[in-house]
Task: structure prediction
Amino acid sequence: MAGLSVYRFAILTVSDTRTLETDASGDAIEAQLRALGATEIERKVVPDEREQITAAIVGLSEGRDMVVTTGGTGFAPRDVTPEATLDALDRVAEGIAQLLRQRGAESTPFAWLSRGVAGTRGTTLVVNLPGSPTGAREGVEALAPILHHLLEQVRGGGQHDAP
Result:
């Protein structure tokens, strides 16, 4: 999908222990996006702190078409990525989060334990993916068939150009 080269992406890894050098999930997301034609991808890591996650999403949304988060979507006490994401969103896209859980459940029943959310902030799509490299990769794979059309809609176009 060479069409993704026209979009700007950001990957936000939420972790108290990972760095850009040790971020296997962020690497998996970046590899999948590049395989789909994405060329402009920024990476950032923040700790599992709600306010820092929200601020990072808000900042990364500026001038980008999509912010993908990875990590912090489970039930551990410090898993607050969904709450922080909701703080930053204008609109929630429940169907996208449902799609990600459904596709993930094809590989593991633990996908149903994800509390990840998705939605928009202005003209930026924001999607929470799991913190595991496999879950993150599968999340991008699940979005791939609809991603171009979805990003066009979020930008304000593409309402009637679906196949």
